[in-house]
Records
---
Amino acid sequence: LMRFTMPSIVMLIFTSIYGVVDGLFVSNFVGKTSFAAVNLIMPVLMILGCVGFMFGTGGSAIVGITLGEGKKEKANEYFSMLVYITLVGGLIIAILSAFAMRPVAIILGARGELLKNCVLYGRILCISLTCFMLQNVFQSFFVAAEKPHLGLRVVVIAGVTNMLLDFLFVAVLHWGLAGAAIATVCGELIGGIFPIFYFGHKNSSLLKLGKTHFHGRILLKTCTNGSSELMTNLSSSVVNALYNMQLMKFAGEDGVAAYGTIMYVNFIFVSIFFGYAIGSAPIVSYHYGANNQDELKNLFHKSIRLIGTWAVSLFIIAQLIATPLATLFVGYDQGLFELTRSGF
């Protein structure tokens, strides 16, 4: 169970680190206005990427059941259809999002320099939005294909690329906020494009991209089955956006910057639980398709014990790291540091 779920957990953590690393470099090398801009627009970008989680988790469960029933060709058809729909839908969403970025930032309360920075960062990230969605889809399908460690390596490479380019573009070349955005785009391109090449050619996994047909019933079941993950991600991003709107009214840029630091850690903590859900879902689906009732009950009880232990541990860790974390992100501003630490 841990062999399958741990790579997914680490994958989700690295995906979350994209925004965290951007924020870290922007805050320390560009300034708190740009840092606030990243935090203000980031929930919007996460909302747009949620579609990938829906297709990934919902689709991998169906593909897992189909594999468990011994219907490998049909499983590949479903897999291919969902990847192609994500690709086309992602391109459409990315184009529309680029045009909508300015009015959305205004609704969130951005004005003046903050508005300019929000639009700049958001529009640059729209370049790789489709790849970000595909990366979220493939995180689940790598597990269904019994290649969780390959999926982990792809995301680690993408994450490390983002970190190194953040250092180069922001700290060394001084490209500012645009440099941080370009670094994230490069990381997401790797995370979204490499799996297409892997699954598009003959490989040693259970899945391969190929010819397919439109299966409306399967698409509907995918959306229905993945709607829980969609709404979990969507609701948390919407709540973050609403918090930012209120913080802009009552605490200004400092409030958004402080809340952003807290949310970065929250993203990483929550990624542990999302990663476990994504990693375990195809296992559950396979045993459901194979009608292994005893193993399903075993998986459920083990999962409850693991999640309960992690929840208590993370609460304790959160209390211990509040001060060093606030120092790391906003230690250059005493007032912002105190606000962040007390909020955490």
---
Amino acid sequence: MINVGDIDGLSRGSVIEELLKAHTTSGFSQVIGHGIPEEITGALFDASRAFHGLPLERRRAVALNHLHRGFIEIDTSVDRHSSVEQAKRPNQSESFMVMREAGPDDPDVLAGVLLAGPNQWPDVPGFREAVEAYQAHAEAVARRLLDALAEGLGASDGVVAGFTRPTTWLRLLHYPPVATDAPPDLYGSAPHIDYGGITLLAQDTVGGLEIRVPEGWLPVEPVPGALVVNCGQMLERLTNGRLLPTAHRVHNRGGTDRWSAAFFLDPHVDTVITPADSLVSETHPTRFEPVVFADVIRAELGGSFESHSGLIQS
């Protein structure tokens, strides 16, 4: 457990040291003192429960669209692109996806940038307000953590430049209970590694999240008010392998509904992802070839969501 409440204060050095230790070894941490008010997170979870409590046809009215925004119905997402385990069964979760709001005059919309555009908003009182309030707080937290990790590695400019105009995603997840005797490969979320930058996960007290460590799969016990933090594969590439992305999965065997909200701070989609110059040397040669983040997104979404098989175009 890392208290990041003084990340911008006198204890910044020790906080950075703790974050680096976690994210260069296990690849995961839980942080408290992050500054997102409890009422903001509570309102987000209330909004998620209100949406997922709507009749199915009302949820389908805002089904996932070609901009990757909207309702993702249960049994429609299979992690076929995962490098951890080839999923054969669809994830036992439903969710609602929101990205950065971009109107018709937004530069990315005018330029035809992949996935740039407006969100879909369900007809649920207070839903948009709750979501956007949480988005703003979560982005600020993720940026502070990214800056701290990059500073600790001595690679601030080379790591954070691609996040100046980031790609952001907020996924409101509902995991219905799964029978305790269900097949072991029937997951709430199949084993996978996040492919972007930094993930912040707010979860309820039900549990079910597990990370892979050398000894096997380790439960991540929920801590009230804490955020689970992990790095994605693009951050691994930007840091030339210093920051580790860790495989994780969800098994909801608790006999009750599980709720969580995952916020992702990723580079701009047109960013060419290549290791920071300051992290490349004779003793630490470049480990990764350059990739364009948009190409990664196309592969990931096209391989995981049946609704995107013909929607994500080059």
---
Amino acid sequence: MRTFTETARRAQIVEAAIAVIAEVGSHQASFARIAKRAGLSSTGLISYHFSGRQELIDEVVSTIVSDMAAFMAERLAGVADATGALRGYIEGTIEFIGAHRSQMKALVDIFMNGGFHYDATTEQVVVSPLEDILRSGQAAGEFRGFDTKVMTALIQRAVDGLPFLLTADPSVDVASYATEVATAFDLATRASH
């Protein structure tokens, strides 16, 4: 079990790593740069808390994903219907991405450079909450009949594309993006009554 001080130091190192990766990319994010950003006296403090570069990268990914999951759980708490849950999922994810640009830039860089393993199992973990929303909406008659795997992929890719768009054009209106994507998929999924 880690002490409070050890936990705080690890968090400090992870935050510095996120900032450095967002600025210079994961390949250029040396322990020396991270230590300097974290205000550490030496890289040895990073090595004390992390067994190596991959453990630090894994912790960066885990931290960002956990932060997003906590944000989304809070955002979707108390939503009673699938239509509201779908809108909340889309708008909440986009809101998180827009408010955490450095973290998302770091995550995309790590992903694009093979810094973490992403396979069919990982994909299913990522998309299963969305797929559950779509299935429950169909079961309740809120959503029309459609292939939930295809619709899940379409929605997830529309949301996942935002960090790339923000890299190319940081002035993108994130709120407008959220509204347009949520509206498009509301129209695409809605049952006609």
